[in-house]
Amino acid sequence: MANDGQSGHKPEPAPLEPAVDKRHIGRRAFLGLMAAGLLALFLGPELFSRVTPGSFPINSVANGPVFNASSWRLKVDGLVRRPLDLSFSDFTSLPQVDETKDFTCVEGWTVPGVRWKGVTLRELMNQADLDPRATHFVFHSGDGVYTDSLTIAEALGPAVLLAHEMNGQLLTPDHGQPLRLVVPGSYGYKSVKWVVRVELIAVGPGGYQGYWEQQGYPARAEI
Q: Which among 88, 118, 95 is positioned nearest to 184, based on CA atoms?
């Protein structure tokens, strides 16, 4: 679902899937989310099946772009005082963190102990200087279709990062090369792949409606 976005996808351990009908996924995924949430409430963490990192299921709503390190850019704009336009080498030169976290999909599977390396959103905001009027981060995928958001409080959690490595290797194209969002403690549909833009916005209580929120998913995706 995440546009693998990231999670909440149909779990086929295969390369990147072609674009599929959004309405069909929306109905099925929404029902899956409701069922998984209710079962988790009554049965607890033992509900989820464990998947080895080597067989990490791949799900996407559209094809991602081909990564070219010489031309790729990450834009950080909107309600920031110092907009950024970073090359891949600029990004990897920023202070890096390593963390090991489980990745859980609303479809009922978990990949335990995934090792991520990247730059926290806290650090990114140290560079961009967050405008206090901002209420949400919006993450734009290079597939041109997928977006999702986090509140300022969610995004600035110490473990939330834009990762360029997974399990000691650069991300592969089907996992969002070169950058994907990692939001520990949230279902995988928040883990936007192929991130090319981080936009800071101000919205009201209704928040921002990303790809899966438009299909009926909740904006808060806490496990």
A: 118
- Report the distance separating Cα 209 and Cα 203, nearest Å: 10
If you count them, how many residues does the chain have? 223
Neighbours of 68 (CB within 10 A): 9
Give tens-digit pLDDT for 41-81.
443 444 346 666 567 888 888 889 999 999 999 999 999 99
In the numeric block, the tokens 């009922």 are attached to 108
Domain boundaries, the chain: 22-215
Q: Which residues lie closer than 8 Å to 178 by C-beta, 6 or more apart?
A: 67, 69, 72, 88, 91, 164, 170, 171
pTM value is 0.79
Domain 22-215 CATH assignment equals 3.90.420.10: yes
Q: How far apart are CA 70 and CA 93, in angstroms?
A: 15
